[in-house]
Input
Amino acid sequence: MVEPAKVAPLRKSRPCPECGRPSIRESYPFCSERCRSVDLSRWLGGRYAIPVADDESKAEYDD
Output
C-alpha cells in the first residue's frame, strides 16, 4: 500500500465566514459548498452591498 504524500496546503485554513468551521481547500474560504452557496445567494439577492457616493464631488478621499 502506498502512503499519500504529505502536501503542504496552499493557503492556511481559516474560519468559514458563514459558520465558523475550518475552511477546506475545495471551497476556500468556506467550509463547504453549502456555505459558499449561502454567501453567493446573499450577494445575488442584494443583502450585501458596496456603498457608493451619489455625488462624486461630495465623496471623501483619503489623499
User: Anything to note?
Assistant: The chain is about 20% helix and 0% strand.
